[in-house]
Design goal:
- The complex is a heterodimer of chains A (about 180) and B (about 475).
- Chain A is an alpha+beta fold.
- Chain A contains six helices and eight strands.
- In chain A, strands 1, 2, 3, 4, 5, 6, 7 and 8 form an eight-stranded antiparallel β-sheet that branches.
- The longest helix of chain A has about 30 residues.
- Chain A is globular and about 40 Å long.
- With about 475 residues, chain B is mainly β.
- In chain B, the strands form nine sheets. In chain B, strands 1-29-28-27-26 form a five-stranded antiparallel β-sheet.
- The longest helix of chain B has 20 residues.
- The N and C termini of chain B lie far apart (about 65 Å).
- Classes of the chains: A alpha+beta (about 180), B mainly beta (about 475).
- At the A-B interface, helix 3 and strand 4 of A face loops of B.
């Protein structure tokens, strides 16, 4: 039985791999069945912050194709004032990942996500292709850390905002955001 | 002993040895400082206030240290000043360091109420009235920030009894200013209310400190009022070479997305002042984009450095160098390493990074000691004793590091000093499974030197001021007997 450690290791490794594969496929299938938000790969090149999570919502559920990106930015916030004004949303909400050219549609509003206070604002985006889209930028904070999200699509700002906020308020997303803000 | 048992025993020893090597070395109260070629001369507890910028000024026959403070902590928002018996928001500490072994605490000048970076008076610069073109010859002027809301100028001719001269208020933030004493031109890091960034530059003529004259607002295109689209990284601080050098080196960013911006000082001062994107571009000579992983806290120019290796080359024997220091902001290495970079800006429109320096983490298990580990700032004195020969870098829990910069293509560490912690040293925490896990470690925040060669380091975690001097081979690098 000289080979027993190898055999045991192989069984453990296979079990772990199959478990991981099952875990990775479980989420998307669930969403596909419901026709709602489906997790996709983070579509942006590496920048100063680690990648977050990216989701796509189809026309059936969201009235048009919509994509949402959300991630924590640790140590990027005024520790006492938090997200104090609309300029802060312009600066931090990852709109520049989509396009350098964006303009606010209107003054922003206060927002609360995963029990963190901040602001939300709607923008007109001019994509590199020349197409125009609507985007909603969100920035909330806890002490010195930020959580930012941006959603974009062709829908009306209020529809996009509602879709994004509803999705971010789901228990699954709230749980992930809270864990991400704690570095887990 | 069977082969299997031998393997298991050997593997266990390997694991134990490995864990020993990686084991953190927590600082304990009472333990001696850690040092190489640097030694302690004197200390002050600075009333256990979190400290930022030290500036040392030769004032008459005395040497006075002016030390800016961050705001208070959650536990002690306003420490008691033993001289007044009152709780005072952190502001500016003023000490007589003529005898560096016996610093005398002269005065605490309170700052803005508020904790950490939301309060205090972190930045301080000094100019003699007789040096300023229109100053009172008998005055000594201290330019300091007042939290995030104002810049103030005080007459500190009697450093124990400062007198307020003027105030520039109505700001949303402030930070690391630069003041040219021979011209009075000041580059104030401010948050003008209508700009889209927290920190930009307000250029002032402070040649007559009692009557500040605004020259212009300046920043990167995209930060100005009314602009749209992406907002470039905010300013950290500028350093000017004055009329003779005609350059201002601006550092943008803290620990992310940094830039070195090289600016024509004359065009900045005398160009069109309306803050349009086109007008903001006019003074810019070049911009060196850093990695998204690093920011620029300090951009320290060292023009015209002779490079020994290039001595026989027909061209390029001397190089214009800018040392760029990032700032670490997260505890226990929860970010990319923040360190020191050297840029060759001889060909100004093609600046290039040529070398870097960091403290080896394994040399002190610094990621496990607690608090921040990484660079923060350098000395900014251009006094001959160290200029273009040595630089001193504050490295948070790795203390201060003395670099031989005579060959900026190959900077080397020649000394270090990590102060001992005291009962006043504040904790630094990280979240583990949703709960704070805290450690106590030195957090050497800023450093400055004086013309005599003393090195002043101050602690962000309330440990105070340590005055140091070089020893052994490090003195030879600076040419000190």
């Amino acid at each position: 039985m000289r080979h027993w450690p190898l055999i045991v290791s192989a069984i453990v490794a296979l079990g772990a791999l199959s478990g991981a594969a099952a875990y990775q496929h479980a989420g998307p299938r669930h969403h596909e069945q419901k026709g709602e938000w489906q997790e996709i790969a983070w579509p942006f090149a590496r920048d100063g912050w680690p990648a977050g999570k990216a989701f796509r919502c189809g026309a059936a559920a969201c009235g048009g194709e919509v994509e949402l990106y959300v991630r924590p930015k640790m140590g990027f916030c005024n520790c006492d004032r938090g997200v104090a004004d609309d300029d802060e949303v312009d600066r931090v909400a990852d709109l520049d990942l989509l396009s350098e050219r964006f303009a606010p549609i209107a003054p922003g509003d206060v927002a609360r996500i995963a029990d963190m206070p901040g602001r939300i604002r709607a923008y007109d985006l001019k994509m590199s292709s020349g197409l125009r889209q609507t985007a909603i930028g969100v920035a909330v904070s806890r002490r010195c850390d930020l959580l930012v999200a941006v959603v974009h699509g062709k829908g009306a700002p209020l529809e996009l905002q509602r879709a994004a906020l509803d999705f971010l308020a789901t228990s699954k997303m709230t749980g992930w955001m809270m864990a991400a803000m704690e570095g887990r | 002993m069977s082969g299997r048992f031998k393997f298991a025993a050997g593997f266990s020893i390997y694991l134990l040895a490995g864990s020993g090597i990686a084991c953190a070395q927590p600082q304990v109260i009472g333990a001696p400082p850690e040092a190489l070629n640097m030694k302690l001369v004197g200390t002050s507890d600075l009333q256990a206030r979190s400290a930022y910028q030290p500036t040392i000024h030769h004032q008459g026959d005395r040497w006075i240290a002016y030390i800016g403070h961050h705001g208070g902590s959650d536990d002690i928002p306003a420490p008691v000043n033993p001289q007044t018996g009152k709780a005072e928001p952190n502001g500016t500490s003023i000490l007589d360091v003529t005898d560096p072994s016996q610093p005398k605490y002269l005065r605490h000048l309170p700052g803005q109420e508020g904790k950490y970076e939301a309060g205090g008076a972190q930045m301080v610069r000094i100019c003699d009235g007789k040096a300023l073109p229109k100053g009172d010859r008998n005055a000594v002027y201290m330019l300091r920030t007042f939290g995030g809301e104002a810049h103030e100028i005080w007459n500190v001719a009697d450093p124990a009894n400062p007198v307020l001269v003027t105030r520039i208020a109505g700001l949303k933030d402030t930070h690391k200013n630069w003041w040219e004493c021979d011209t009075g031109i000041a580059f104030l890091v401010s948050g003008a209310p209508d700009w889209r960034t927290r920190r930009m530059t307000q250029v002032y003529d402070l040649s007559d400190p009692a009557h500040p004259q605004k020259i212009r607002d300046f920043g990167l295109p995209g930060q100005e009022p009314g602009s749209t689209g992406a907002v470039p990284t905010e300013l950290h601080g500028p350093i000017s070479t004055g009329p003779s050098g005609n350059r201002v080196y601006f550092g943008y960013g803290t620990n992310k997305g940094g830039f070195l911006q090289i600016v024509d000082r004359e065009k900045l001062l005398n160009g069109p002042r309306e803050p349009t994107a086109d007008n903001l571009r006019i003074p810019e000579i070049a911009r060196l984009a850093m990695s998204a992983f690093n920011g620029a806290h300090t951009t320290f120019p060292m023009p015209g450095m002779p490079i020994a290796e290039f001595a026989r080359d027909k061209d390029g024997k001397t190089r214009d160098i800018v040392m760029i220091v990032d700032e670490a902001i997260l505890n226990e290495c929860n970010e990319p390493r923040q360190m020191v970079w050297f840029a060759d800006v001889t060909v100004e429109n093609r600046p290039m990074m040529i070398s870097s320096y960091t403290v080896p983490e394994a040399s002190g298990a610094f990621c496990e000691r607690g608090g921040r580990f990484g660079a923060h700032s350098s000395n900014e004195s251009m006094a001959p004793v160290y200029y273009k020969k040595m630089a001193f870098i504050s490295f948070f829990n790795a203390g201060v590091r003395a670099l031989d910069t005579r060959d900026p293509y190959h900077p080397t560490e020649v000394g270090y000093f990590i102060p001992a912690i005291t009962a006043a040293t504040d904790k630094r925490c990280v979240k583990i499974d949703g709960k704070d896990r805290c450690k106590v470690a030195i957090q050497t925040n800023n450093v400055e030197t004086d013309e005599r060669g003393y090195i002043y380091i101050v602690d962000r975690a309330n440990t105070g001021l340590h005055i140091l001097e070089l020893t052994g081979p490090a003195r030879a690098v600076a040419g000190i007997q």
